Amino acid sequence: MTIQFNDETFRDDYSYHNSAEAIRRFPFPFDKDDYMYAVNMEPHAGGREGSPFENRFDVDEHYVAEMRDREITLNEDPLRCQSLPHMELAGWDLLELIMECKAEDYPELFSLHRDGDRWHWINRPLGIDHKFTFLDPTTLPYGPMEYITRQAQGDFALLDQREGNLWMEAGMVTSQADWSLDFDIGMNFFEWHAPVPKAHEMGIFQRALKFLLAIQQGAPSRRLNWTMTVNPRLDTSPENYHKWGPEKRTLTPENVGEKQFLRVELQTFFRLPRSNGLAFPIRCYLISLQDLVTVPKWGRRLHRVIRDLPDELAEYKGFAVNRQLIIDYLAQFDDGKPTSPGIFPDE
Amino acid sequence: MSAQMLRVTEIEALSPLVKRFRFEHPHGAKLPLFSGGAHVVVEMPDGDMLRRNAYSLISDPQDGSGYEIAVRREDGGRGGSRFMHACVRQGDMLRISTPLNLFSLDMRARKHVLIAGGIGITPIIAQMQQLLRMQGRFEIHYAARSRREAAGLRLLPDLPHIHAHISDEGRRMDLGAILDRQPIGTHVYTCGPEGLIASVAQCTERLGWPKGSLHSEVFLAPPPGRAFEVTLARSGRTITVGPHQSLLEALEEAQVEIDWSCRGGACGRCETEVVSCHGRIEHHDHWLSEDEHSSQTRIMPCVSRFRGRELILNR
């Protein structure tokens, strides 16, 4: 498999784009015509060939551009990457996990050679060729978590497990759906989910936490989450709300198909061996509505989901202001026909 | 529960009642690493029965060349440890689960005080290896009745901050003295009989330690009891749980799909919904909340039992 990496931006001129292949493999998050929270976990043990579920860490045509965007965000705000002192071992666990997985799943892009603690890592797309000593932070230019997550798409949270809870105590967060690592760091599972409406009363978080605490080594899990973003912007952080918040007001019936994006998070959960922590990668995928409706099943279904969504969810997800515009646009692509079960396009 | 077949490569008597077993991959493949305090579940095909017991790993967590456990023969137990002692030979293949840790070190601690009673030393051995590797500050207090019975002595290095308290030599462990002089930011880890864990809890409370700096693991073997019947709502079947069998084992024997991990009432994997209960559930787990216990709406089949007229489970 060869990947042609896009030259594109996630800010300013927003030249981000999906190839026909990227549209077809997009992780559409709705398996039926309506949506409500659920503990929608499944084993992260591969998936349909070519889909973002196939490998443990998906690498796609946006890889190089996303890493460039991460660097810009970090230069402006170094607090997007933080690790409390006791999380360093978990950082090494994460580095090992990502290097091992990428070298196995994409041997033409990444290589890892190990001689005891002396490691040699080659990342061809980013032009990195680096020898270092495992567990010796003085041999890396950054801490282990920062080093590897500057080379891996998506955000990453490292969770410490203790007192029957999970604590967000390290992370690399530059492509988030309006939450802040700097605000959440040190919080436990219930604290950082406090702003989510409805789910607490439904007992969702109690059940989700029990599930996550029991995740075992070698048996990762995954789920999909979603929201809506105007313009293909990775950094929709509270810190930069003044930059992207006003863009919500730029939508018109003429440009909504081009400027409104469905934002999907592929969230995965891995038990880490040495630290007993939990790695929580949150990989963001963006697709414009006009690209999305080229898959007729998705156009029909997204229309129904957005139309019937409870108001507080549209409010929480931040698109209530544009909801009617979106519904009116999508309505043209919903002929009322039934949709097939599952998330994948009809053949 | 993922597991793999491993070969028994070493068996060594550490004391009259405790044997050490080493397991390696038959083709020398590296085993998943783990963290100090983790355990594995060993499957023992004993005649028609498949026994499964959890044992703490005592080998170096950073060493994937093999796993080691220490097993104390419990003559009054349900038979797993007797099987390990009497039937397992070097060269045998046994199915061993992936390590799971319900007793991990709190890496925020400025110092770790590890307290073990008897065979409770086992998870603490691996925690010690992790601390040695990470250059963490720690001390160990190991209480045993006699030097002859103290299997842990063979596993502990001779270091000034590792203390053995042998009661028949007149050196009983004085928890007050150990805990009173610890610096702020110390965490204490206790593994052993429930009485020891309770004493450490009382002592630290008296000394004003924060609750979050206390950690303990009591390994529950499923307690025997009277036989009882359980009805399975999904199939309508009724099964009998024998006096020396756990409900989980009875479910497995009846080919009911059920997830599990620690088999000691701590991990939560086998939690089961109670559809109807006319009688009293004898809860023995550390997983469900007090409310869940008293409402009798959930049960942990690995350790809990039932007395009464009818128990219907959502299985």
From TrEMBL, chain A:
Pfam families: HODM_asu-like. InterPro entries: HODM_asu-like (IPR021848). This is DUF3445 domain-containing protein. It comes from Paracoccus methylarcula.
Automatic annotation (TrEMBL), chain B:
Keywords: 2Fe-2S, Flavoprotein, Iron, Iron-sulfur, Metal-binding, Oxidoreductase. CDD domains: fer2, PDR_like. It comes from Paracoccus methylarcula. Residues 1-106 form the FAD-binding FR-type domain. Pfam families: DmmA-like_N (PF22290), FAD_binding_6 (PF00970), Fer2 (PF00111). Transmembrane segments: none annotated. InterPro entries: 2Fe-2S_ferredoxin-like_sf, 2Fe-2S_ferredoxin-type, Beta-grasp_dom_sf, Cbr1-like_FAD-bd_dom, DmmA-like_N, FAD-bd_FR_type, FNR_nucleotide-bd, MRET. This is Oxidoreductase. It comes from the Bacteria. GO terms for molecular function: 2 iron, 2 sulfur cluster binding; metal ion binding; oxidoreductase activity. Residues 228-315 form the 2Fe-2S ferredoxin-type domain.
